[in-house]
Specification:
By secondary structure, the chain is an alpha+beta fold. Helices cover about 35% and strands about 20% of the residues. The longest helix has 19 residues.
């Protein structure tokens, strides 16, 4: 077989959405409420869902806590921080209505979480389910390049909007990045899509987003975040391809907590167990075990045991220990995947209580996760995300050496 025949080339695409996207508005409200509750009572049990639409916020869910918070005030504060500050946008923090429908967690669930079926001294999983973590060495933060660049674009959109550098931007928006891979390695950026809400000052005589405004997005938003080694003259740009994006945010589309689970994780790379993160306290393994799975996968790659790694953890409600731990490395591992799985079980705490303690998950850090991705970044406001550390890499390297020589 000739080398030319063996070469493989394909495209992969991921998307992200801005902090002002309706679904992300809902996520940030839910996590803002979670943070307020944890700040007063770290043992709060929270499952908070939010819906946002034209002029209205609906907050519902199950909360058991000693904390006393003003749910409506938190929602308004989050909306203000995002940038919905003017009535002419169609949704603003002062005039929107806020409806709250919160009740306590089911005692039938609580009994299994408070004391695990398999160990009365342990905390049981807050639900059954399967969670995945993923890491790859194609970026320095060990994230897939398409989702990493998509996040950085929407992050940059928010930055230039908040600073006033591009004054005609409004909060809602999306990005999408297509990367060309050759022999499973990223070669170049192929296509970039940006749809961003704007005011009417940048409409041309045809009532369309002007060519000058498109160039501003390319030069001031996209170019600064795409590494020069992936930039090329053949990139296809689609900037506000519908021609106009004045009506947006909750006024344009209804937003719901937990509807951007692929944006929140790896942009379609690897698998997803289906559970959302926002509004859930860490007793819910949908959130805490997903963070642990990312932490494990990142440390496996950082240790050099594989170039990419996907970790699956699965739990039964009310049971502390995972029912399965599975590793997939896309054929890049330096040792058998089953051996890596054994190293994980030997070196990482995998019960809900162990995960919470190791990653220090009872702090009010969650609103910051609800925008620009839960993985692959270290925001300064929260002091960084514990699941992004690679502090177990050296221990894994040593353990792998011992296992190989045994």
């Amino acid at each position: 077989m000739s080398p030319e025949y063996r070469r493989s080339s394909h495209l992969f695409t991921s998307e992200s959405v801005t902090m002002g996207h309706p679904d992300k508005v809902a996520d940030q409200i839910s996590d803002g409420i979670l943070d307020a509750l944890l700040a007063q009572d770290p043992n709060s049990r929270v499952a908070c869902e939010t819906l946002v639409t034209t002029g209205q916020v609906v907050i519902a869910g199950e909360v058991t806590t000693k904390a006393v918070v003003d749910y409506a005030a938190i929602a308004r504060s989050v909306i203000r921080e995002i940038g919905y500050n003017h009535p002419e946008i169609g949704f603003d923090w002062q005039s929107c209505g806020v409806l709250t429908a919160i009740h306590t967690q089911s005692p039938d669930i609580a009994r299994g979480v408070n004391a695990a079926e398999d160990d009365q001294n342990e905390q049981g999983a807050g639900d059954q389910g399967l969670m995945f973590g993923y890491a790859t060495d194609e970026t320095d933060v060990l994230m897939p390049l398409p989702i990493h660049l998509s996040h950085r674009i929407v992050e940059r959109l928010a930055e230039v909007r908040a600073s006033g550098k591009i004054p005609w931007l409004r909060p809602d928006g999306k990005s999408q990045v297509t990367v060309e891979y050759e022999n499973e390695l990223p070669k170049r950026v192929h296509t970039i899509v940006v749809s961003t809400q704007h005011d009417e000052s940048v409409l041309d005589k045809n009532d369309c987003f002007s060519q000058e405004a498109k160039e501003v997005i390319i030069e001031q938003v996209i170019r600064p975040v795409v590494p020069s080694r992936f930039w090329n003259d053949e990139i296809i740009f689609h900037i506000n391809p519908t021609g106009k994006f004045v009506v947006g945010g909750p006024h344009g589309d209804t937003g719901l907590t937990g509807r951007k689970i692929i944006v929140d994780t790896y942009g379609g790379r690897g698998a997803h167990g289906g559970g959302a993160f926002s509004g859930k306290d860490p007793s819910k393994v949908d959130r805490s075990a997903s963070y642990m799975a990312r932490y494990i996968a990142k440390n496996v790659v950082a240790a050099g045991l594989a170039r990419s790694c996907e970790v699956q953890l699965a739990y039964a409600i009310g049971v502390a220990k995972p029912v399965s731990v599975t590793v997939s490395t896309e054929g890049t591992a330096l040792m058998p995947e089953d051996d890596i799985a054994e190293l994980i079980k030997e070196n990482f705490p995998l019960t809900p209580r162990g995960i919470i303690r190791h990653l220090d998950l009872l702090k009010p850090i969650y609103k910051e996760t609800a925008r620009n991705g839960h993985f692959g970044r270290t925001p300064t406001k929260s002091g960084g995300f514990s699941w992004e550390k690679t502090d177990m890499a050296e221990k894994l390297r040593k353990a792998a050496g011992i296992r190989k020589s045994a």
